[in-house]
Amino acid sequence: MGLVIYSSGLLSHLRLRLSKIRAVYSSESAVLRLQILERVDVELTKGDERVALSLVKDIQGKPGGLRCFGAARQVPQRLYTLDELKLNGIDTSSLLSPLDTTLGSIERNLQLAAALGGLSASVAFGFNQLQILMFSLGLLFLWSLDLVSFGGGVASLVLDTIGHTLSKKYRDRVVQHEAGHFLIAYLLGVLPKGYTLSSLEALRKEGSLNVQAGTSFVDFEFLEEVNAGKVSAKMLNRFSCIALAGVATEYLLFGCAEGGLADIDKLDRLLKGLGFTQKKADSQVRWAVLNIILILRRHEGARSKLAEAMSLGSSVGLCIDTIEKTIDDDDV
User: Fold this and answer.
1) Which of 110, 215, 289, 328 is the S-S candidate for 181 at Cβ 3.0 to 4.6 Å?
2) What CATH number labels 82-102+168-331?
3) How confident is the model at residue 211, as a pLDDT?
4) Whole-angstrom Cα distance, residue 177 to residue 169?
5) What does the pLDDT look like over 38-68, one tens digit per residue?
6) Residue 278 contacts by C-beta under 8 Å, 6 or more apart in sequence?
């Protein structure tokens, strides 16, 4: 009996020591990972995308490194029917036809307010019909100038800024949309290089009125294939999933997608440019939608934590660290 008690105590002691060793190793690995991700941030800021990607690939899949980069489990690629998607709880009509009702409502309210304001001003100041006509033509000229010179960028900037100011739902939708793009790209092995969550932020960072909220990626490998006129199936699959990740995220969280029409159009143009028939394009899109939805469902916690980090303006490296810390070893 004394021997049994001694063995049990020794076993408990060994387990405790092993637990402490693992904790120390985990802590040291986390510090090392953060140090490398800080270097990645520096290289991305400098514009050295190849160096940044090389740093990430050096510790990809290594213990204490980046276990999740390019490690997502994906569904087999084949022709999936709409019924199969429905069996997985996916209604493509609510996912692939985004309509921005929030900004649309704000735009209509602004137009109504402008009309009422103009009418009130004309009564208060006694404007005659000619003055009202000249004022209307002036507004029309400014609108046309914005449309021609900036592609409607000024109007989009105003609407987006008002949307972020007045609508919490709109702010939440935008950050979750971009978190979906970021997470799917990372899990499929494409390194994000930056993100913006509003048109105003994009204007500050990019200096362009035509850039709205969005996530950019280290995509020189993809561009090299496009320029060569031959896009591999692996690269096309990545691009398809990343393009549709935002609308898929909105669909899962809100029941339908409002943003992401430009993403869908971009994918559609790519598939047409590659000579895809409508049937082949539909097959590619259905596979991508199913693949994304299942990945997002599996990693809902990581997407939620990532969205929080992005809403705080965390760097790309810190966002990656958030993903790595949230996803379990056996759950990629």
Assistant:
1) 215
2) 1.20.58
3) 61
4) 12
5) 999 999 999 999 999 999 999 998 877 899 9
6) none
